[in-house]
């Protein structure tokens, strides 16, 4: 009895393992940590309760990879609750990207598909850390780009004030630079001797611009006693000699500068006089220009004289000249300002007009773009073959209309020409008919060539009229055919409708498959529980029979031996039953492996089918493009 109970318990435990699934608490804990990491990183889609854990985890991993500037060929927006094949394909695509990102953790596709969150957690943790680092690296760049894009369209009040003051400030700086820039006051004579050393050339250039650099003594009239007193008392004779030599060098330098200055001033005075040739050139100008040049020359001469010898003029006279010069400059600048304001007003009016025209053109362009987009959408939904046929019919209709108009114009021209001929013939016939009447020639009722020609014209007119009637009948027939084709096109479902029907059929098939799978699970559970019940009933009946016969079997040794033999037979029967169940289990396992292999082969065929369909669609699209190009060339 003690040997039989463990066997029954082991057998029942094996049956229970086939229908029960154990929930791993550690897996749930890791799943919760993964979702918390994704939400903290910014993937708030993980909060949606309607999504499965697979969709949340795979979506979060894809979001992290995309945030790290790596491409993943995955579309999770419209493929929730995917099949096993789609899940495996998604897992393989994600795992193929991780080595390129140099992920330190290993991950297999079956671990993602099987939701092994213990091994997924370190990978997600590393991806979240990498995504946060990438966000920090790109934050400054994106912020600077956003600011630049904002400044292209909008501006702050401080920027407006700065832009208003900027032009004025730049103009002021330019005016100051022009007012205080170095001006050449003197110039060397052309016949003057050439300066050989560099120092002399430097001093001469500086003197041309009114700057003096070198040695100069403040008091030229100081006496020899003052010079001697300026030297310290404690200097030796050698030091006194050095000081005297330095004074001689200073005097020589001052003399050299004075000689250079004298040459330049002589050149300036010589240039300040008007020669006969220059007067002859000025006389050739008009009187107004002569007056302006004379006034400008007088002003420049007064300015130069004031600059060269300001000590000769009085303070009031110098001030008066400056005031007059400034007033003239103010009047000139005011006149320029008025001209610029008038020009600005004209330009502003032109700008407003052009701006209004540009706004109208933009609105018209947007309207045309919207109409074109609507037409392209309608054209994309229609069948290409029917659309091409319809285009051909419309082109034929337009061609017939143009031919009809041309024919009408030709008929009008021909009718006008014939009427002119009739009028000319009538004009020719009038004098001839009078002569015939006077001469008693042909009778008036007889047919003439003019009347025959008139009948011919009527006949041709009637023929052309019949042709026009037939053409109108043909046009009406074509219009009816076009209307019939329009109705047929409307009856045929578009590509979008067919795709919608296909999606709905696929959804219904998936629902039926899910219900069928659930029903099979219920049947399996029922059969397992029924077998469990049968074995429990057998165990209870066996225990009851043992309990009833135990007291009688222990009464005598013979009965006890017989009872033990019966127990051994029962144990042997249980062993045989156990062996049968083990054999059945192995057979079911082998069958499951075979079905799994077949399922993997079918999955591979499905992948190949999808790949072939995609390539076929691409080739079909290329074929349509080539056919359209061929038709365009043929037309």
UniProtKB/TrEMBL annotation:
UniProt gene name: CCDC93
CCDC93 N-terminal domain: from which residue to which, for each copy?
A: 26-132
- What keyword terms does UniProt attach to this protein? Coiled coil
Residue ranges, annotated region (Disordered)? 426-452
Composition bias, Basic and acidic residues: 426-439
In Swiss-Prot or TrEMBL terms, this protein is called Coiled-coil domain-containing protein 93
What InterPro entries is this protein classified in?
A: CCDC93, CCDC93_CC, CCDC93_N
Q: Where is the CCDC93 coiled-coil domain?
A: 178-629
